[in-house]
Design goal:
Helix content is 44%, strand content 16%. The protein is an alpha/beta fold.
Amino acid sequence: MKTSDGDRKTGRVTIREVAEDAGVSVAAVSKVLRDAYGVSDTLRAKVRVSMDRLGYRPLAAARGMRGQTYTLGLIIPDLRNPFFADIMVGVNQALERTQYRALMGISENSVRTEMALVESMLDRQMDGIILIGSTEDRANHDKIAALKPLVTIGHHDPQADHFDTVNNNDQQGAMLAVRHLAANGYKNIAMLSLFSGTSTILAERELGYRRAMLEAGIAKNINIIQSSQSLRDVQLAARHLLEGPNRPDAIFCWTDFIALEVISVATEMGLSIPGDVGIVGYDNTMYCDLAQNGLSSIDQSGELLGLQSARLLIERIKGRQEAEHFVVTPRLVSRRSSMRLSR
């Protein structure tokens, strides 16, 4: 195998140079790169040392022609929400000792953009795709899964046969939030949700909110306000709630990203938290712990969701056919924002 003119021009290190440096055959290096069965740890370590010393990087296009690029597509709906960073940490942890790398696309909660990103990832021969908070339905997910291994996070579809799902028990999480607020003396509990006709996680959280309000004997106070995810719309929705004639004494927010904005609006209006209004978020992101926030939140283990999604996707790539539906049990982390003060 000769070094190509293209490799000479680009200065890329070739597989032959790695083999010569390691003192092994080109076929042995190829087996290491493919993570082939039967490669000894000693051979693998020797080849890896040479690749690191020479700065060898496999050419993705060439690997794709041989069947795998060792790249995974990860599509998230919004870069600003810190919860998605937690998921990415988990994905990276799962991939740390593998040859796989994740490349990310941002859909901005748009069905058209999400599908365009999926098509781009398919065109680039990525080995599998992880969709987070997908706006797609079963039919479209099945179409994607027929082309590439697929795992969804934040999409409840336990009857799906052709792709895997990784979720938090969103209905249970919402019930935990309302039960916590009711136990702390709050009665007029509203929910600030996201306007979406396709999100199964929002449907589950809204159902959990309704069930817990009914369970607590305060169903007459059920009040779900839906907003887009733009900060301006969230601010308007929060003000609508807090300036209304029947102001809630607590607000359950569908995500921390929104809850933190509600805290900001309430503070700007001169309301005390939790004295005038208690607030509970969802995700338990790192900003909840900051002293100025002290936000109570439902922890759905974002890192675990990411880790499990990457694990399931690699299993799919390696040939598993049976669908798996992994569900995380949520827990409530109580902080200052929902501890009712004496009046």
